[in-house]
Amino acid sequence: MGDILFLGHRVPYPPDRGDKIRGFHILKFLAARKRVHLIAFADDTRDMKRKDGLAKLTGNRSIIWRSKSRAKAAIEALMSRKPISLTAFDNASLREAVESILSRHSIDTIYVFSSQMAQYLPARPRQKVIMDFVDVDSAKFASYANQSHGPSSWLMGREARLLLQHERAVAHRADASLFVSEAEARLFRDKTGAERVHVVENGIDTDFFDPTAQFKWIDTTGALIVFTGQMDYRPNIEAVTWFVETILPHIHVRHPGARFAIVGRGPTDAVKALAKQPGVIVTGEVADVRGWIAAASVVVAPLKMARGIQNKVLEAMAMARPVVASTAAAEGIDHARTIRVGATVGEIAEHVIAVLDDPKAAAQMGQEARAQVQQRYSWEARLAPLDAILGISIKAPPRRNVA
User: 72-77: which pairs have CB atoms within 8 A and are 24 or more residues apart?
Assistant: First the structure.
């Protein structure tokens, strides 16, 4: 029985953002069954130092620094008729690392995390190929194109078309294509006609995201509305901007002292500027997001565009906090009506106001949300379909991951 090669567009450690959380738990799942070799990019200098945190889960580890600028990637894309998503991740050192692992080790499965990494597959792979698309990225860029104007709209439209061509070609080569929700899988089947498309949902670590766990609490008084996320990510930027400019003023009519905390690393200048608005806090990166979630009177996820399952929503539910989400952010989550969902400015504002008006009902809402997550979204249960997809017996003994 051969080993697994895991190709990742970002080091899946520490599991502190959406893609890294999914990547880490899948890597952990695979490592309990076979020896896994990891080849991945790093775009944070700290991740180059943290890679040893994966030592117990992996055999060989090759972490390649990704420093190519977006401008250079765009020029290469325009010259080569490729999507920027591919040229941004085109790297000779990583390609050499893949060739080295395949030549030195008996690899029977290549697990590709994110479509950007499919360019490193052998031309005619002898190994089983599992392509974890997670979301339909081409659809995301199509949405960007519709929301943009002029050259930006043209560039986003071009990216959507070329990326869809790439996704379709990769899916037809892969033994299995994975998506994080049935909605994403259905969209992909409709757009590409691909077969062998499977759903492997995200889970949540309910032992870590537990309101009774040990973590540093945030001292706060009064109503606190919290949003969490990577704050240089376009959908998150659009979400908090929309909330501050259009939704929060309605909430302040009923709850003038309510504060809105934007919690997450990498806030752009546009996000930082929101802190000038009344009642808005921009924290930047925090050591432990649980303290802010636990302190929240309500957690909001007002995303206009969202793909797959939003970890921020599952985390808040697991922390037993009441959640108000947009229709897009709630899509794909089996929340059993334990969260409030709104489609418009008025609906979202009224939901938040209702939660703030009745703390007792809000607390009950949070407890029911946690119970739903515990029952429905454990990582063990969500990743169970991988055994059949990989063709691994669930009774197979774990392999020690030593080089």
Answer: 74/155
Which residues, in sequence order, are bridge partners of residue 280? Answer: 260
Q: Dump pLDDT digits (tens) for 185-195.
A: 999 999 999 99
Q: Is the pTM of this model over 0.85?
A: no
Give me the residue label for tokens 């996320």.
229
* Alpha carbon separation from 396 to 31, 34, 105, 306 (Å, rounded): 12, 9, 20, 37
> How far is Cα 118 from Cα 121, in angstroms, rounded to an integer?
6
Sheet with 3-8: strands ordered across: 61-65, 36-42, 3-8, 107-113, 128-134, 176-179, 197-199
Residue 295: exposure state from Cβ atoms within 10 A (0-12, 13-18, ≥19): middle
Angle between helical axes of 311-318 and 359-376 (0-180°, round to 10): 110
Q: For residue 247, how many C-alpha atoms fall within 13 Å in the half-sphere facing its CB?
A: 31
Dist CA 14 CA 12 (whole Å): 6
In the chain, the amino acid numbered 102 is L
Give the CB-side neighbour count of residue 192, counting CA atoms within 13 A.
28
Give the mean model confidence (pLDDT) for residues 388-392. 89
- Report helix, strand or coil for 256: coil
